[in-house]
Amino acid sequence: MSSQQRSFNRGPRSCYKCGQVGHIAAACEQSERLCYNCHQAGHESNDCPEPKSKNAGVNCFKCGGPNHYARDCKSSGDAKTCYNCGKVGHIARDCTSSS
Fold it and tell me: Where is the CCHC-type domain (predicted)?
């Protein structure tokens, strides 16, 4: 696998604690970690009472939403999400973030 493929497959960085794009767990203001499957607080994904999502833990590159891929995204518009910083409005080659 080339370094370009590895970089693309990594996608935007998202917080492991709350699942949001744009910051990492160390900088997260969420007091409790969320379940990767249902995105609710109070339990881990292996104890989740909801049916397991086949895309649990996946973030969409188009809208930044959880549990789906860009190809399946229902979001309207052509919002560009940066693969480097995860912010909407520009792409990685134009990113000014040092992250």
Answer: 15-30, 35-50, 60-75, 82-97
